[in-house]
Amino acid sequence: MNDFETIIGLEVHAQLSTESKIFCSCSTEFNSPPNTNICPVCCGYPGVLPVFNQKVLELAVRVSIALGCRINRTIYFERKNYFYPDLPKNYQISQYKMPLGQGGHLALPEGREIRINRVHMEEDAGKLIHKEGYSLVDFNRTGMPLLEIVSEPDIKSPQEAFEYLNQLKLILKYIGASDCDMEKGSLRCDANISLRPAGQTEFGTKVELKNMNTFRGVRAALEYEVKRQTAALNRGEAIIQETRLWDSQKMASAIMRTKEEAHDYRYFPEPDLVDFFISDECIDKEKSFVGEMPLEKQKRFRSDYGLTEKDIDVYLLNPRLALFFEEVVRYYSNPREVSNWVLGPLLEQVNALKSNFETVKISAANFSKVVKYFHEGKLNNLTAKKALALSIETNEDIDEIILSQNLAQVSSQEELAVFVKESIEQNPKAVTEYYQGKKESLQFLMGQVMKKTRGKANPKIAKELLEEVLKNNRP
Ligand SMILES: [Zn+2]
Q1: How far is the CA of 271 from the centre of ligand 1 (A)?
Q2: Of the candidates 375, 404, 433, which is a domain's last residue?
């Protein structure tokens, strides 16, 4: 038995989040009835001309910046020629010799960097729907804007491939370039894998894996392939360069075809499109959407704020919420408590309004008062939420709300004693039952106290007082 080293490279296709297709104005909406989002351009009628969607270029530039790529300032498209029933033009407009981005990298959580070979734009093909004995074709997907992101063969294990994909998805979503929804096919991944004896410098023969529909599927397919190739090499067999299809039901891959070479596609520059120049303005504008990468933010939120991983995950997917959280902490530096209120009551109320965070009007400074007053006992859980609800869409000052709504919590023993006494006197049945050992009666009496103070009683003090009075009056 020999020791082998695993070498993996990944090719990811991400659909960019634009409203229209890459070379025509057809909608990119998912789940439309078959062949309704189509036109002569994306269906490849003779004599029609493609028009490049600038939004695709902007998002592609944004991704290239986020992945630290060198951006080629003059780019052009090429035709990749092949026949397939879901490709009405018999060629795909893609980029070959002059991709948009080159030479980038992606950092894994443990700190290792995977080099990115290239980032290029291309159009998607249609979809075949196979039925019993016949197939149907849906061209809605033809011309969807795709970004192909190709890594260098730097990945050393199936688990590392899994981490690379998670990290890439996080970045693409974070910068708003793609929704990365694998169920909609917005993110697809092919893998190249080869093995070589430990210590050898030349690569072994690589096998391409396709048809993995989840990141776990990619990992499982790679694990299967490591085992298959290790066994073959140990038997002295040569690995054949081929494409294999993963079957997630059987948890096994099977040969699809032997690998085609690039020259089989007869690439040549697309004559219907001009060269495109990428301006400084475009790059500067897209840079402003990139900023701090998720991994850096994750580390910072851990060390600076001591938040839980669960909280941090929410902020990584919601950069604006994260920004709000940080602003609030600047006014009231109790990060955990602030986070509890941002991800708890604030989001609950946003959801209840059937709204989104963008419509929230309450300022960070004003919101910080809700958290602070709750922490100090000036507001209880109920009144703090009420004050928040009154300010969330207006940014009305929390101090003024407390005054006008008379929300300040009643914590004074003397004041509470009056309400406790009344509650006991007016509910003799509950009191008797309490003395007979019925625990719920205490809750009932507490409820009466809360009701009398219109929800403003400090629950902790009120409960202590109630228990004390009941104990002293025990018959
Ligand atoms: Zn179209």
Answers
A1: 19
A2: 404
